[in-house]
Design goal:
Length: 131
Amino acid sequence: MMNVQMQTINQKMAVEYLKFFYPTIRSEITQLSKQNNFAGVIQATINYLKDLLVDSKITIIGHHLKLMDGIYRNGNSYVKDIIENLFIRSFESFKKHTKIQNWNILYNYMPVKFQEIYVEQQKKDEIFFGK
């Protein structure tokens, strides 16, 4: 079996993936990427997922979590930092805006690495901010 090395994903490549994964907000992603606003692109995906959360479309959100995990796993350090500091941080907001049953389902859809980062963020927040 051939061992294929995946190319490291930079922010421009990540934007192209996200435009494909999120056709509903493609124009917003395109506009933000023209402004070199990768953080804004990630925030747009978060806002889109929050809209899905309001509609209790948990399985669709789970699918998008797995897609973002693929970008994260193969991303360069900048892409990973933005995903950790915006996308994964947004999970606390997701938790606050959904029923506990839906949160538990959503948490189980999260890739293990995202769960680990999320739990670590929660621990640090508790230490630093007493949350």
